[in-house]
Amino acid sequence: MKIVILDSYGANPGDLSWDELKEIGELITYDRTAPEDTIPRAAGADIVLTNKVVIGRKEMEQLPQLRYIGVLATGYNVVDIEAAREHGITVTNVPAYSTESVAQMVFAHLLTVTNRTEHYALQNRQGRWSNNPDFCYWDTPLTELAGKTFGIVGLGNIGKRVAEIALAFGMQVQALTSKSTDELPSGVRKTELQELLSTSDILSLHCPLTESTRHLINADTLQQMKPSAILINTGRGPLVCDADVAAALASGRLAAYCADVLTEEPPKADNPLLQQLNAYITPHVAWATREARVRLLHVAISNVKAFIANRPQNTVQ
């Protein structure tokens, strides 16, 4: 049995091991795979693992031996699910492996804005505190989170965990969700979009990317938000319109934008968000703690073993 990993570097840059897959069959790994190399590299493979390499109808039609695609992520939009169904190819993903890590990043971003620890640490390496006439100083607003209103769009695994942490900070938590009121975590209030936008001091996005949520945050919805609001996106880049958010930041219509995802990754150098001082952008690393990646590999390998044993798990097709 031939197993090919098309882009192993993202999940495992060398600090973890794929050795369990070598016990199953012939394993070939590539750090990265360009679109034009996907078919020749996957040729003859029974099993293909991919993170961001697209496997669409064209690829499947030219890979007649392919029987299984394992997505090394929770989102599986890189695979044409309808084509996989037509070709009898099982597709699996890895759900919920990064819940704790992504929720942690939400609050790392939020505390960056409210407490500015990196700003002060950098200043003090340059002698600012040593040369200060008083025992302390601050040159940015410092904000207490307790009592603030924390809004969440989407209450899946990550959204619920974020809600729990926000409650622990003493915030009032409200959510836009398809869940019924009796399904909500204790302390979370269900609301509609207009109220969520107009009353949230912090708004965190955790919904799937669909046609109805694409550019959910745009010029119109930004106008409904408080100018003092902090917007956080660790979900999907296209949930917001980058240009509209950048314009809102530049005009003072939005206090801060914290994002671990952008519409295009890596972004072009002229992405307007990269020029805004109150945009705090991290390079899609919320999921990438070692602990989360260990879980990712464990489940991905377990998915492969379950498929071979004719007991597929975590199937999306």
Compute the gyration radius: what is it?
22 Å
Biggest beta sheet summary:
7 strands, parallel
Counted beta strands? 12
Mean pLDDT: 97
* Shape annotation: globular
Strand order across the biggest sheet? 8-7-6-9-10-11-12
Binned, the helix content reads 25-40%
> What's the end-to-end separation, in Å?
21 Å
Number of helices: 11
What is the H/E string? EHEHEHEHEHHEHEEHEHEHEEH
What is the structural class?
alpha/beta
Could you list the spans in which at least 5 consecutive residues all have pLDDT below 50?
none
Strand content range: 5-15%
Description of the structure:
- By secondary structure, this protein is α/β, with parallel strands linked by helices.
- 31% of the residues lie in helices and 15% in strands.
- It is built from eleven helices and twelve strands.
- The chain has helices at 19-22, 38-42, 57-61, 81-86, 99-115, 117-125, 157-168, 193-199, 219-223, 242-251, 290-308, and strands spanning 2-5, 26-29, 47-50, 68-71, 90-92, 149-153, 172-176, 188-190, 202-205, 230-233, 256-259, 279-281.
- The strands form two sheets. A seven-stranded parallel β-sheet has the order 8-7-6-9-10-11-12, sandwiched between helices. It has a five-stranded parallel β-sheet with strand order 2-1-3-4-5.
- Helix 7 (157-168) links the parallel strand 6 and strand 7 (172-176).
- Helix 5 (99-115) crosses helix 7.
- The longest helix has 19 residues, at 290-308.
- The radius of gyration is 22 Å and the shape is globular.
- It starts with a strand and ends in a 9-residue tail after the last helix.
- The mean pLDDT is 97.
